[in-house]
Structures are given as structure tokens and as C-alpha cells.
Amino acid sequence: MADSLYRKYRPVSLDDYSSDKIKMRVRGLMQGGVENLPHFWIIAGTHGCGKTTLARIMARVLMCTNPVNGDACGECPTCKAMEDFILTGDPVPGVEEVNVASEGGKASLISTITKASEPSFLSQRTILILDEVQNASVQGQQALLKPLEDIPDHLFVLMATTEINKILPTIQSRAGVTIRVTAHPVPEVVGRLDKVCKAEGIKATKGALRLIARHEGGIFRDSFNRLEQAAAAVHGGTIREEDVLGLYDIVPVDMYLNFLNACEKGDLSEAYLIIRRIVGSGVDPAAYILGMLGEITEAVDSCYSGGASGGLVDWVKAHDDGLIFRIMRLLGNHSVHPTSTVGGVRVSVDSEFFYLAACMVEVFNGK
What we know:
Low-confidence stretches: 338-347
Mean pLDDT: 86
Strand content: 5-15%
Helix content: 40-55%
């Protein structure tokens, strides 16, 4: 796998893009005709969720000579060149992508947008993608105000940012469209990972892929990168849950389930033995509690959405909603740190865990 899986399998059209809501919105705007489109767009969202990819796909649609139903035709010479641009970022006539993290100074931004504002003999339109705009200096952003207020007809500016709150309100107000890209549902990421595995000849269990997708928070780029690490670690073998657990240094679902069952039975001695195994294995205590909360939260989501069964999903289904939410609140409010103190006296990690188990027993007893 010479090229990264994320780059190799990057979507190149709106049809390939993952978010149906965003696809419908962009396609609807594009179908209205280029002449009716706003010339300044902001795409905001967390890292690795597809902002730059969406900007490149939109650039492809705008540059296409024969768009179909609001998407690029995929057949014209421009579309062919733009497909390579989407996958690799290699320059194409009429499209300029600037990483503002490295070129965010006032002079640099003025030079960039001034150059883009000049009509090109090589293309009918010019697309300027400004990536990581939150890294632009205040002076640099202020320098964009006037150009963004009077964008020439041939120019479209697409801004991408992970922190829209760092973009000047006066710039935000000039955007004709603001699109917010979010992390993706775990089942959607698992489905994409599974397709890539089949295409690449990578053997992996669905449980392993689910662990990757969940632990990476539904972020495609991070999930693809972790899949590559797992594939390299098994040397052509099958990626199983225990392989992924080793990469993340996290615990199997059974260790959460056993702890919950012990607390439900009111068996603090069994809960304490489980705690000792957790602490003795070197698992970070805070990560264990957050992991349990994450597993329960995902199980609740699966219950309401009709998702997969097994693990904590079946356990959640067998219990009252009110009880589940009280447990989630307890886990969310509880923290375990190696240097915790009570009344100025340091408390051991396993003592804190034992206190959590006692609190959990009270929750099960309705207290």
C-alpha cells in the first residue's frame, strides 16, 4: 500500500461523498446553475471529517464542462484532471489550493487572492481553496474583507476551517453558504472500511472494524490510518478485536460487562477483583471509565436506531432507560486520577475504583 488508504479511496464525486444531507444541499445549489451560485463558501468541521475533500469535489463540479444533476460528469478532460487533483492535490489549471497554516500572513493572502481575481487564459473559472483558515493572522483575515465583498464573476472562494469561531464574524457574514461537516456514524465508517478491506485484500472482522471506527470518533481519515497500522501489525493475517485493542491499549467489552454485572448483583468483592485486573494490566483508569461510558452510549444509540446486537447492546436492552441514563450520568461525573486526594490524603486508584463500584451498586438499587 504505497499510497495511504485515505488518499487512495478519497471520494471524487458528490455521489461518493458520505453525508447524504450535505450531498443533497450542495447538489440542490449546483442544479440551480453556476450563474446563481454564491461565490464565497465556508466549510467548517472537525479534523479529518472531509472538509478539504468536499471543497475539492465542489471545485470539480464548478470546473466541469458538462455537469449532470448538480454533479460533475466525470468524463470531460477537466473532470479527469480534477479527479487526480482530488486524490493527490497536484495542481491543475484554474484551481489553487492554499494551506493557510503555512501561508497565513497578510502579504501572502493578499497576493493569493489578488492573483486569483485576475481572469485566466487557461480556464473559464478560477477556484481558490483556502484550507485551515483559522490559522490566518487577524491582519491576514482583515486583508480578505474587501476582496471577499467584491468577488469577480469568474472566481469562487472555498474556505475550510476546523475552528470557525476563530474566523472573523465580518468574514463569516460575507459567506453565501456555510456548510458544517461532522464526524460520521460508526456503522457508516465500518461500511467504508469493510469495502476498502475487500478491495485491498485485507482480512478483518467486523468487530475489529467497529472498534477502530468507534475509537476514532467516526473520523474517516483517522480510521483509515489506524486500519493501515492494524494491517501492518498482523502481517497479512486477519485483524481481530484483540489486535485493535493492542493498538489502542483499551479493554475488551467483556471487562465493562463483567464490572456492570458484578455491581448489579451487589457483589463488591467480584467488582474489586475486576478492578485489580484493570489496574494491574496497566490500563489508564480515566480511559477505562470513558471507554465504558462510550460503549454504553453507542449501545443506547444502537437500540434506538435498530443497530447491531451483542456486547453492551443486549445488556442495555435488558434494562430500564432511566437506570441506563443514571449510570451514564455517574460515569460522566466520575474521574479517577493517580494523584486524587480526599481531605488532603492521597487515595489509591483501586480505592477510587472501589468507590465507583459502590456508587454503581447504589444506582442499581435505585438510590
